[in-house]
UniProtKB/TrEMBL annotation:
Protein name: Protein HflK
CDD domains xrefs: SPFH_HflK
BP term (GO), one: proteolysis
Organism placement in taxonomy: Bacteria, Pseudomonadati, Pseudomonadota, Gammaproteobacteria, Thiotrichales
Species this chain originates from: Thiothrix litoralis
Pfam family, one: Band_7
SUBUNIT field: HflC and HflK may interact to form a multimeric complex.
UniProt keyword list: Coiled coil, Hydrolase, Membrane, Protease, Transmembrane, Transmembrane helix
Domain of life: Bacteria
Coiled-coil positions: 205-232
Length: 327
């Protein structure tokens, strides 16, 4: 009878124990990278092996790890902006200002002057797939489009228009042209606003331009004050004129009515007089005395038949003047 060889138990080697944590870490990284979150103001464009797969809404989502699925998050509900001629420190948008050192603000106007123009373009991502795949660098392309359009619009105007009265017209025209080019290039961008910030002349002539600008403002101020005085004085004069006309019209109507009333009363009295002259004369006499006597302070009523009146009054004698009394 053969004696069986004893079975030897093989224990795991130290190398296998050292590789286990690495495997767990790799598996944890793979599991962690399989999930991603899309913010509420954004959407994610999911690419599988580099090909467009789906447009993912906000929320927590799963993807195939190890580079099979790549999710690009785009803030479609957020208003983005680009700054030209200046920049804001700490900006979160990488396309807000240009990384390459270039001065975009100097521009030549239509009358061959130079102005330093600073402006802001505010836009939204309206079509995420076009924004990612139709144009290679949409942010840089939008900067080039904006600068080209602004130079064209400013170049069609004089420096006085650019510095003073033409700002709003420049903003509107630049917005329309930028949106037209963005649509033509299928950039997937909707431009909301173009806003001019500071517009200044070059430093060597800035003092002279400021003096001209101050003179223009003083001119506008004097014109506004003159218009204010005009609007204050002229309506007042017009009102007084209308008041005088209405007063004269009222006085005219009053005099006409009074005259017509007098005529009507005279005709009525004359009609009654023709019917009874004596009674009418007596009534007119009594009415006249009724109007006169209340104004007389001392009244002496004498009867015609009275004979024994005191002679001191000399009522029956003719009054003589001093000239008649002289011989």
């Amino acid at each position: 009878m053969k004696t069986p060889f004893p079975q030897v138990l093989q224990l795991p080697s130290a190398r296998s124990f050292s590789a286990l944590p690495v495997i767990l870490v790799v598996l944890g990284i793979i599991a962690w990278s399989s999930w991603y979150t899309v913010p509420s103001d954004s959407v994610a464009i999911l690419q599988r092996f580099g090909k467009l797969h789906a447009e993912v809404p906000p929320g927590l989502h799963f993807k195939i790890p190890l580079g099979v699925d790549v999710a690009t998050i785009l803030p479609v509900k957020r208003q983005l902006k680009q700054e030209f001629g200046f920049y804001t420190e700490g900006a979160s948008n990488p396309d807000q200002y240009s990384d390459t050192p270039r001065d975009e603000s100097p521009m030549v106007t239509g009358d061959l002057n130079v102005g330093l123009v600073e402006w802001v373009v505010q836009y939204r991502i309206s079509e995420p797939t076009h924004y990612l795949f139709a144009v290679r660098e949409p942010g840089a392309t939008l900067r080039d489009v904006s600068e080209s359009v602004m130079r064209e619009v400013v170049g069609d105007r004089t420096v006085d228009e650019v510095l003073t009265i033409g700002r709003q017209e420049i903003e509107v025209e630049a917005l329309l042209k930028m949106q037209k080019l963005a649509t033509l290039y299928t950039m997937g961008i909707s431009i909301d606003q173009v806003q001019l910030k500071n517009i200044n002349p070059p430093a060597p002539v800035q003092e002279s331009f400021n003096e001209v600008n101050q003179a223009q403002q003083e001119k506008e101020k004097l014109i506004n004050e003159a218009r204010r005085d005009y609007n204050k004085v002229v309506p007042l004069a017009e009102g007084e004129k209308d008041q005088r006309i209405r007063e004269a019209e009222g006085y005219r109507l009053k005099r006409i009515n009074e005259a017509e009333g007098d005529v009507s009363r005279f005709n009525a009295v004359f009609t009654e007089y023709q019917k009874a002259p004596a009674i009418t004369q007596q009534r007119l006499y009594l009415e006249t005395m009724q109007d006169i006597l209340p104004g007389v302070e001392n009244k002496v009523v004498v009867d015609e038949g009275m004979k024994n009146l005191l002679p001191l009054l000399n009522l029956n004698q003719k009054q003589t003047t001093p000239a008649e009394a002289q011989p």
